[in-house]
Amino acid sequence: MRDAYSFSEIKTNILSGLLIALALVPEAIAFSFVAQVPLMAGLYGAFFMVLITSVLGGRPGMVSAFSGATAVVMTALMIQYGIEYVFAAVVLMGIIQILFSVAKLSKYVRIIPRQVNLGFINGLAVVIFLSQLDRFKVPTPGGGAEHWMHGPQLYIMIGLVILTMAVIYLLPLLTQAVPATLMGALVTTFVVIVFHIPTTTVGDLAHLAGNLPSFHAPAVPLSWHTLYVIAPYSFILAANALVETLLTLNLIDEMTETRGKPNRESLAQGLGNLVSGFFGATGGCALLGESIINVTNNALRRLSGITTAIALMIIILFASRWIEQVPIAALVGVMFVVVEKTFEWSSLRFFGKLPAADVAIGVLVAILTIFVNIALAVLTGVILSALLFAWEHAKQLNIHVVDEEPGQRIYAVEGTLFFASAHSFSELFSPKDDPQTVIIDFKKARIIDHSAIQAIDSLAERYQRRGKTLQLKHLCSDCRVLLTNAKELCTFDIDDPKYHIADDRIN
């Protein structure tokens, strides 16, 4: 992207940034309830993440804040050990993400299969939904265990949740000038205040300080036991956050037909979480919904995120007492809408239409996401998908040979060229027996990884050793960048395919 901002871009990015800030407030508070952490920790987490990733990240326009992928993991740690251990886990989470970036491992997220992505998204939606059901429980008088609401208390709660959701869904039909989630929370809050409806509010459960965040080293013992406690949570937090962030980055790449920098984004995410842990904040990762809002508004510059961060801090400093009046039911309604919009309903149509193995992998990933954790779910899905893919596609590489004129032969490659098919690809050519001029057409092929690039380079070297002319057609731009021996043999055509290859040199 170019560095200069036009007036139109400045206006677009500032307005979109303000819109995102207003939308983040109720979600950050709702996710704080999910994780059972102080509300200010969730709001500070949104501030630090959106600011640091907007300034330093590899995907301008992508929004990062406290999210469901991190909130659901923090809950058990928070309940058993308390908030200081959560802050320590967030610090270690940031360090792990920084090391992940330094090792340039972000490229591997590009090869996560679609069915795994769908399973992860659907599983996460179910986890968030289940976490909201706790809001329908109240303490038993006398200090007993919590029990489900009933009678008028339950009816009021359900009615306010439905009101919030109705406003969120119906408002966009009238106007999109204000965030629907914000208006849903505001309308429900207004109704509760005006009609004096008895219901639990944010202020009943927590007090918002409304101060600037200050440095706060996690108050935990510097011991191996502390590391033993937080390390499993930190690794799961880091993995969950990176998966959600990089999958969101990939989606924005596709929507904008541009290329983000996943390793740089991973580094920024790590720094954001590291800083968050030392300032009493929860950290977080990329948010799909808010990021898509920016893309839809064409707010793809760093200014949008910086505006969001500034607006968030202004809200924290000067509007915290108003936030305390928001009913808990309004936040539950917001989260139910988040669940509905997160769940990929279109995936239900795949039953009976996609191969049974692909559907089974997606369902397995969703189940593991719900009952175990996102990182293990995605890892399991990727391994199973990779084995299935390698088995099916390695044997589907075909080459059609055409001799159009004397002294020239054309090889039309069809199929997927990657580590499992690279060896068989090389064996399909015979430089010794081929005529003086050879053309290899990759229009109907797809190059996946560095093993494929090496196979093409090695083949070019074989032809060059025999003094024969080789021409490579319809390779994507990434291929032309990565090739060494065969770089000068590539031709450019307007019909060349556009896709990305997982390789360190272009990340």
TrEMBL record:
The lineage of its organism: Bacteria, Pseudomonadati, Pseudomonadota, Gammaproteobacteria, Chromatiales. Residues 398-472 form the STAS domain. Pfam families: STAS (PF01740), Sulfate_transp (PF00916). This is Sodium-independent anion transporter. The chain crosses the membrane at residues 40-56, 63-79, 85-103, 115-133, 153-171, 178-197, 230-252, 273-293, 299-319, 326-343, 363-391. One of its GO terms (cellular component) is membrane. InterPro entries: Membrane-Transporter-like, SLC26A/SulP_dom, STAS_dom, STAS_dom_sf. It is a multi-pass membrane protein. Keywords: Membrane, Transmembrane, Transmembrane helix. It is found in: Membrane. It comes from the Bacteria. Its main location: membrane.
